[in-house]
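quick one: EPU bound model?
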Amino acid sequence: MEKLLIKGPTNLKGEVTINGAKNAAIAILPATLLINGICTIENVPNISDVKISCKILSALGAKITWIDNNTLTIDTTNITTSNAPLDLTSKFRASYYLIGSMLGRKKSIQVGMPGGCNLGPRPIDQHIKGFELLGAKVDVSQGKIKATADKLVGTSIYMDIVSVGATINVMLASVLAEGTTTIDNAAKEPHIVDVANFLNTMGADIRGAGTDMIKINGVKELRGNATYSIVPDQIEAGTFMLAAVASHGDILIKNCITKHLESLTAKIIEMGGKVEDNGDSIRVWCNSRPSKANIKTLPYPGFPTDLQPQIGVVLSIANGNSTINESIWESRFQYTNELNKMGAKITAQGKNAFFEGVDKLVGAPVYSSDLRAGAALIIAGIIAEGQTEIYNLDHIDRGYEKIEEKFRKLGADIKRVSE
Ligand code: EPU
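yep, here:
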């Protein structure tokens, strides 16, 4: 078993370069199944969720070549089976995108029930509703999802709730459907725009991604033969921005789209942090103790749930009392128990958490309950006095490439050790 050992406190200083977005990559990889040909994808984050995606695509017949650490070519000319490996697909969340892609390409797919971070109930009723309205039959039983269709026909689909996954999945299933599909009350996250841009580059006809109404005109075939570069990861960028504030540091974050970070930038300024926005890079620094703030997580362009634990670390040491209302996931406050072991004073109940700001955190052994909780604990370890040990690194490795190396370059005393 591996763990991270961090000795603090450190004021983080220097430059960091952001990788491609995890949540775009793990949708774009299954989206390649819609292509009858070859494509090249650049700026792919080299993380364990991407490696699992590649294994699943290979099992379905795709030929994948890593050109360099962050570039892949994928040949999906011959897709030989519609049965995705159950063990791999049930390991992570984004395996649900195989359903939309394979319905489009082969009109048939069987996957294991999607796994992923334990954030509370994660229903997929809106995905299924969309597939059924397009003409598919979906059967969920014995830990498997089977979806089949004679043909898919475009239609109007209204999403009852704003869902990133359902919006992307229904978009995938509609690309090769007959006629036009509209998705109303669509999610607007930057990675939805990125998946649509990828598909359009490969020959699809999708309009309106990034607004709450997406229109997909079905095309006969996606031929590929093109190169696409994945959008920078706004959550990774936000993680380093909050690390700068928490550590009284000064970090230049390169390769990001600052427009995607506006809700966070506003909060950082409210908390007394300083921000220099250069469009494709952002410098964040903080010379004094951050001030209290109240946060409510919301779908984009609201404050992202995937940065909630990281800003929770800042609030734990802020001057004054703060609150967080988590409106997306029921179980996203598990990290607060770990921060309390480090001296924080946080009371979490249901969707709300109350933070009584303390002067400092103190190192302790802590357990990462999910990906973003893990990132938050790293920031906590860096600002805490003494030694912090972080366990359950699998969660962190799912979504952050070379995270300890990046923090080490910013001055953190952090190393990975095997027990
Ligand atoms: N929901 C339903 N029915 C559905 C789908 C969603 O009720 O059919 C509910 C969910 O239970 C949740 C809300 O709608 O309360 C939003 O869920 P959404 O579908 O938007 O989430 P997701 O697609 O499963 C993605 C990211 C998450 C991120 C959320 C919200 C992937 C693989 N995961 O999940 O990322 O928190 O969007 O932005 O893209 C992470 O990266 O750490 C992570 C958890």
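Residues 130 and 403 are 37 Å apart (CA to CA).
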